[in-house]
Design goal:
The complex is a heterodimer.
Chain A (H helix, E strand, L loop, with lengths): L13 H42 L2 H4 L14 H10 L1 H32 L5 H11 L4 H12 L20 H4 L6 H12 L3 H9 L4 H12 L1 H17 L2 H6 L8 H7 L11 H32 L5
Helix pairs in contact in A: 1-14, 3-14, 4-8, 4-11, 11-14
Chain B lengths: L2 E10 L10 E11 L4 E5 L6 H9 L6 E6 L2 E2 L10 E4 L11 H10 L9 H14 L15 H13 L5 E5 L7 H18 L2 E6 L2 H7 L2 E6 L2 E6 L1 H6 L4 H6 L6 E8 L2 E4 L2 E5 L6 E7 L4 E3 L5 E10 L3 E7 L8 E6 L11 E6 L4 E5 L11
Parallel strand pairs in B: 3-8, 3-9, 6-7, 7-8
Antiparallel strand pairs in B: 1-2, 1-4, 4-5, 9-10, 11-12, 11-14, 12-13, 14-20, 15-19, 16-17, 16-19, 17-18
Helix pairs in contact in B: 2-3, 2-4, 3-4
Classes of the chains: A mainly alpha, B alpha+beta.
């Protein structure tokens, strides 16, 4: 006992500590808020500019010193946007392609994620590894080969095969995009977190694999399924390069492509930017709403991609 | 219904694929579980007890050997046709379903003749819930239940199909000490009420001893001893079994037989007439020590732990295979040590076991 060091309890100046704490806090918060505000302004300004431009008249838009708020608010640009860009058609096409490809893509994703997470088959590791490897290749690289395939121009044949040519159909917008390795990976990770015992318990109770998938795994993975649905829908909505390349006719045009191609030239020969801004604004609304209401799931999908190797 | 295991062996391919040799998890298991009994499969982790349970259940198929339920062979029958109920260590309840839906789940999978109407299923589920006393929690989700309640739900789910065999895989290890005591009595009660043949796996010898009709002690895939808990405790067949059963654990010493005398160091513990001189392991149960001033065995007193009902005397003895010897004596007794700090004890003969030094097998001591 004697050789034990004596424990000295120092007196603390509580008031001084509190003052220091407070100052440090204020400085920290000030810096953070200034930074965040600057970044927020940078992000929001283009959208703000889009919205006010869509509400201006052509004359006001052309002023040498741009106004930060329209002197006279007009809505005729929106009417023009619908007429000139045939927005309604574009909306319907995109909705159709988006809905069909999301549903089909979910079926493919769920079944393959189940196989990779739950079943044991020869070459599983190799197949999954190969799929993962394709994630390293930028999507633009496939575009050319995919285009050759869907237009019937197979590389080892001299002549193109006409019945393979499915350009300018809805199928060409849907089928090549059905399999997403990233979604399979995302869902497989979720499936693998479900304890093995649940599967064994279900086996003892005589549950088939499919029933187990349907009644246990899917309900437990609802949030990932929702994330995938949203990401897929957003992907369909935002797709540009592929639709522009393979389905550029009026009957199948999608929204981004349609916007790009629409002519907003006035009789005087100038581009009617306010009308164009109005069209862009309308097109952005659905995505904006999706983000506001389903932010939680989108963030999950984005942040999940960063972790787990 | 009795369960018979005949020469059951389970080998797994080595995890390191370069090594061809298989890992033998269970090696030539032979035993019979009588109808309506509660049997504890006991052993340290990795001894193959869970594998054995999974083979009885049908989730794993034996590499060799046969399994019979009653007179019928079920070796290659799928689990759902065996009529077994299985309870997991982590309960394995479906987290998105309520208690009621969890208990109903096995019934909803029944096909053909066994198929039930919704009303029947509900009646069965309520009956099972009543049996484990959770009928008031039917609409809760598993996450809203305590560990003990979740375990009851798991048992109800296993029993709802009225299985012929109930299998429990470490059913108590996820519960705290108090709940464990309570739940094991509960399991015993449910087993008695239903009369279902029950096999349960545990690494906790106290748990196994306290509720089993029969215990099966396993080590490295091989059965060491089978018997009533008290018989196995009083008459272990080898050093491993002696060490594995009993809390506090048995004290093991390096001893020897010399001129018909069992000795620890120079101290003569008891007479062993007709035995050849050789080194042996001497194991003495903690309750086998009686404080006595001219006793045969001695040790240097280190500490006394008072437990209320009795107390543990912690000693040091150079021949002990562990650092300290633990003796349990009545708390009323005054422990006296001599000038050198030694305490002396008499040894109860039926609490001493002698084992061969090499094989660790029990040496039968007559008289």
């Amino acid at each position: 006992m004697a050789d034990r060091k004596e424990f000295v309890i120092k007196d603390i100046d509580v008031a001084a500590s509190m003052r220091n704490q407070k100052t440090a806090n204020i400085i920290r918060l000030t810096v953070i808020y200034i930074f965040l505000t600057l970044m927020a302004v940078m992000m929001i300004f283009p959208f703000y500019w889009m919205i006010i431009s869509s509400l201006k008249t052509m004359e006001e838009y052309r002023l040498n010193v741009p106004t930060l708020w329209p002197k006279k608010i007009v809505f005729e640009n929106f009417v023009m946007a619908f007429e000139k860009a045939k927005l309604l058609d574009l909306f319907l096409h995109t909705l159709y392609v988006g809905a069909v490809s999301t549903v089909l893509s979910l079926v493919v994703t769920v079944l393959s994620a189940f196989a990779f997470a739950r079943l044991n088959f020869k070459g599983k590791g190799i197949v999954f590894g190969a799929l993962m490897a394709t994630m390293m290749v930028p999507g633009e690289l496939y575009t050319i080969t995919n285009y050759l395939t869907v237009s019937g121009r197979l590389p080892f044949l001299e002549e193109s095969i006409s019945w393979l040519d499915i350009t300018n159909t809805f199928a060409v917008l849907i089928v090549p995009m059905l399999v997403s390795v990233y979604y399979i990976y995302l869902l497989r990770q979720t499936f693998m977190q479900i304890p093995n015992e649940l599967y064994l318990a279900a086996k003892v109770d005589g549950t088939s694999d499919f029933k187990y998938l349907w009644k246990v795994m899917l309900p437990l993975s609802v949030s990932t399924i929702i994330t995938i649905t949203i990401l897929k829908m957003m992907g369909s909505w935002n797709a540009y390069i592929w639709p522009r390349l393979v389905a550029n006719d009026d009957a199948h045009k999608l929204i981004t492509n349609g916007l790009r191609g629409a002519s907003f030239v006035t009789e005087a020969g100038d581009t009617n930017f306010p009308a164009q801004m109005a069209a862009v604004f309308i097109v952005s609304i659905p995505l904006f709403l999706v983000f506001v209401f389903l932010r939680k799931y989108i963030m999950r999908g984005v942040s999940r991609s960063g972790i787990k190797g | 219904m009795k369960i018979v295991l005949q020469n059951v062996t389970k080998a797994f391919p080595n995890r390191n694929k370069k090594i061809k040799e298989e890992v033998i998890a269970v090696d030539g298991l032979n035993f019979e579980i009588p109808d309506g009994k509660l049997v504890g499969l006991l052993g340290p982790s990795g001894c193959g007890k869970s594998t054995t349970l999974y083979m009885i259940c049908g989730l794993q198929k034996p590499t060799k050997g046969k399994i019979f339920f009653g007179e019928k062979e079920v070796t290659h029958l799928e689990p759902e046709h065996r009529g077994v109920g299985l309870v997991f260590q982590n309960y394995a309840l479906y987290p998105h379903l309520t208690v009621k839906q969890n208990i109903l789940f096995p019934l909803q999978n029944l096909k053909g003749e066994q198929k039930m109407s919704k009303q029947e299923m509900l009646e069965k589920a309520v009956a099972a819930a009543k049996l484990v006393q959770i009928d008031e929690l039917m609409d809760r989700k598993p996450s809203e239940l305590s560990g003990g309640q979740q375990q009851r739900v798991a048992i109800a789910r296993a029993l709802v199909k009225e299985p012929r065999v109930l299998l429990l895989d470490e059913p108590l290890s996820n519960l705290d000490a108090r709940l464990r005591l309570q739940t094991r009595e509960e399991i015993r009660r449910i087993q008695r009420e239903t009369g279902v043949t029950t096999v349960f796996v545990t690494h906790d010898q106290e748990e196994a001893m306290s509720i089993s009709d029969i215990i099966v002690v396993m080590k490295e895939g091989v059965v060491q001893q089978i018997g009533k808990p008290q018989n196995v405790y009083d008459d272990p067949c080898n050093l491993f079994v002696a060490k594995f059963l009993g809390t506090p654990p048995i004290n093991v010493f390096d001893g020897k037989i010399e001129d018909g005398m069992l000795k620890i160091g120079d101290e003569e513990i008891m007479a062993l007439p007709g035995q050849q001189d050789r080194p042996v392991h001497v194991a003495i149960r903690p309750e086998g020590f009686i404080p006595c001033e001219d006793g045969a065995f001695s040790g240097i007193l280190r500490n006394i732990e008072v437990m209320g009902r009795d107390c543990s005397v912690i000693l040091e003895n150079e021949k002990c295979q562990k650092e300290t010897v633990r003796a349990i004596v009545d708390s009323g007794i005054d422990i006296k040590h001599d000038a050198t700090g030694r305490v002396r004890f008499n040894i109860k003969k039926n609490k001493v076991f002698v084992f061969e030094a090499e094989t660790e097998l029990r040496i039968n001591v007559e008289g």
